[in-house]
Amino acid sequence: MLLAIDSGNTNFVFAVFDGDEIRGSWRAATDPHRTADEHSVWLSQLMALKGLKPADIDGAIISSVVPDALYPLASLCTYFFGHDPLIVGQPEVELGIEVHMDRPEAVGADRLVNAVAAHRIYGDGRAMIVIDFGTATSFDVVGEDGSYQGGVLAPGVNLSVEAFAMAAAKLPRVRIRKPERVIGKDTEPAMQSGIYWGYIGLIEGLAVRIQEEYGAAMKVIATGGLAPLFARSTRVIDEVDDELTLRGLREIYRLNSKTRE
User: So which residues are the catalytic ones?
Assistant: First the structure.
């Protein structure tokens, strides 16, 4: 079984794959100061609830955009599970795609992992846009051949909500939801409308502009916790996959396992 770890700015996500099946996945708030021992105590208890043991793990892979979190996570894999992990971004780890960027090393590992997953799982000969609703809302362009072509970064939905409340003393923190009306009749529903429909406008507007600039119709895939909420209100999004990044890690691990054979 494979242990896949996605370390983002907001959450750590751990998943155990048995072939293509995810036997269990667990989230925790990102804390780069959490030690390998702390990770192991928390994770082992959750794995046990799914009938999984550390000895069941025969490989590990990590994607991280939080540099300080990488060493404890790698130590967890090495000393608790007994396997040195593949780390996306290290020179010896093959992605199987080309990265057409001015500075390929500066691209977030999660964005490259999503590109790999989109091409391998959803590729149908068309170029793609992958929208990831994370700390940032990213729009990543994947060429017909799976190559990473670049993208767009916008403030994430939760980040915008927090900034909204912090910047204005009389504005409350609001729950992210689809409001019943676009025109709000009070402050809170007006804010919810601006956040929700404002991001729908962002999604639709950028998707159109990206395709116009690219010069072809593209398949649009959404991932991240808020993807289903926004996907239900726009026809731009073709697929929603909450586990896209984890599946990308699985694909990269398989590719590198074949290379080592």
Answer: 110
